[in-house]
Design brief:
alpha/beta; 6 strands
């Protein structure tokens, strides 16, 4: 087994992410008994792919590893490290091949329900991978905090009509702008599984705030919405107060039109079985 440990020095190499690599990774069939061993088995099959230090922790710091240590590689990794229902990889770049490996292995592990990829320098391509393969796992809580290059398509992670199972997603400090919020709101116009959305510390102005407040008139699955440290004025908070108020007055013709659109969307909603919902929170 020594040949697998020439990849213990993890280096990001997204040139590895080819159609051939994708086919090889997705064809893998893990045991479902040891997450890290299943992940390692896939890494062995991809020449040039390194072992991510947050997925299989090293028992020694790189500066402490000596040449003799590499001759006994089993001592370099903690294969039995606990993950306590969650897989966490903060602060280390996550390349796309490694991300796909993780998602494929996760399909065998119903007990892992949290995935934390905060500050992993994810890209729009990374989001595409997550959107495609995450619904095939048991992940219900996703943390993408401080990934600053996911503005173009992060909304695809929360679409009920695309099979999202997420109950909670955190997008703190991701430089999200109003255009991104507009697309997120479009995905959340219908009730889905998501009940917690963290948008703290982004670049959301009153325009984005108003869109979010209107969304709350229709989506009754959102229970927690975090919006601190954005660029919204008191105008936005008045809109939010109106949106969730039971004393809200007669609806406008524009809101009637919006409700008709929502009801049509709800007819195809897998989470409500066609129940249109709508109305007040």
């Amino acid at each position: 087994m020594e040949e697998i440990y020439n990849v213990w020095r993890y280096e990001v190499n997204d040139t590895l992410y080819t159609d051939e690599t994708i086919a090889s990774i997705t064809a893998s069939n893990g045991s479902g008994k040891n997450f890290r061993q299943d992940y390692l088995d896939i890494v062995r099959s991809i020449p040039g792919l390194g072992i991510h230090p947050n997925i299989i922790p090293r028992t020694k710091k790189i500066s402490e590893i000596k040449t003799d240590d590499e001759k006994n590689p089993a001592l370099l990794f903690n294969m039995e490290a606990a993950y306590e229902n969650g897989l966490r990889s903060k602060g280390v770049v996550m390349d796309n091949s490694t991300l796909l490996c993780i998602l494929v292995v996760l399909q065998k592990y119903d007990d892992i329900t949290t995935l934390d990829l905060a500050d992993s320098q994810l890209t729009n391509q990374s989001i595409n991978i997550l959107a495609k393969y995450l619904p095939e796992t048991s992940i219900t809580t996703l943390n993408l905090d401080y990934n600053k290059n996911i503005n173009d398509n992060c909304e695809n992670l929360i679409s009920a009509t695309h099979g999202s199972k997420l109950v909670s997603i955190s997008l703190r400090g991701c430089n999200l702008i109003d255009d991104t919020i507009k697309r997120i709101v479009e995905k959340l116009w219908i009730n889905g599984s998501l009940n917690e959305l963290n948008l703290f510390n982004n670049k959301i102005s009153d325009a984005g705030g108003h869109l979010l407040s209107r969304m709350l008139r229709y989506n009754h699955s959102i229970k927690k919405l975090y919006l601190g440290s954005n660029h919204m004025s008191s105008s936005s908070f008045i809109k939010f107060a109106i949106a969730v108020s039971c004393e809200y007055g007669p609806i406008s013709s524009e809101e009637k039109e919006e409700r008709n659109k929502v009801w049509k969307l709800q007819e195809k909603n897998p989470f409500t079985g066609g129940d249109a919902g709508g109305g007040k929170k």
